[in-house]
Amino acid sequence: MKKFAYAASLVLLTGAVAGVSQSAIAQSAPASGAPAAAPAPAPAALTANVTLASQYRYRGIMQTNNKPAIQGGFDYAIPGGVLPEGFYIGNWNSSISWLSDSNSNVSAPIEMDFYGGYKTEIIKDVPIDVGVLQYYYPGSYPDGFTRPHTTEGYAQIGYGPVTFKYSHAFSNLFGTPDSHHSQYFDLSGNFDTGFWGLTLNLHAGYQQVPHQTVRASYADWKVGVTKDFGNGWAASLAYIDTNASRAFYTNTRGNYMGKATALLSITKTFQ
Q1: Is 53:262 a contact under the CB 8 Å cutoff?
Q2: Which residue of 68, 145, 163, 191 could cross-link 158, Cys pair, CB 3.0 to 4.6 Å?
Q3: Partner residues linked to 148 by β-bridges
Q4: Count of alpha carbons within 13 Å of 76, Cβ hemisphere only?
Q5: 133 with 94: CB under 8 angstroms?
Q6: What is the pTM of this model?
Q7: In CATH, what number does 45-270 get?
Q8: Which stretches within 37-188 are classed as H helix?
């Protein structure tokens, strides 16, 4: 999903944010009758991840011109007592090429995402997650080149294996002029197949980009499977496709950035 200024895409997100781990602490009043000590705050949960992928797609759009990508980041659940339990921050990074693919004078080979938010359950088994995400692309740009840095807010609600997420751009979207208030709608589900530890991954999304003379809005979808091998290792295989406009999403190398593809990735999570 990046590159709307030149046809591209980048998110989201992202991997899932780690929850705060909780440990029960037994308390008893001292024999002296002094008040019991206050419960210790829940410990912070820090997780990190590294992924090797056959390519990087974001919201269905090519980010590495069909080349492999290396990705990684961390999630930190802020311990209760510092803030109310449920707040988190995180960072995720990936190699990219879509900016230089669009303009050979650009040197910006890395995407860096910074986010923070709050997760809780409004009712039992109905989690919500709200936050802000900053996409940042360090590098060198020629004079007059519109910077692709983007700020989005998001809100997500889940039930069982299904989640719905809404993202709203407070800035121009990945450098596309006059694209403030772009919106992305994401309906996803991850279902245990009961076979060989495989999880079925389904996704349908719609990227709405306003005020463009050429159609920039499009739908994307994904069907995939994930295998958890234990000890933090997992592998995923997915089919990804879009109906993105060729007129808008073809880069200067002549590659259509929204074409169907298969994507293989291997991830190691540390905690």
Answers
A1: no
A2: 163
A3: none
A4: 11
A5: no
A6: 0.84
A7: 2.40.160.160
A8: 98-102
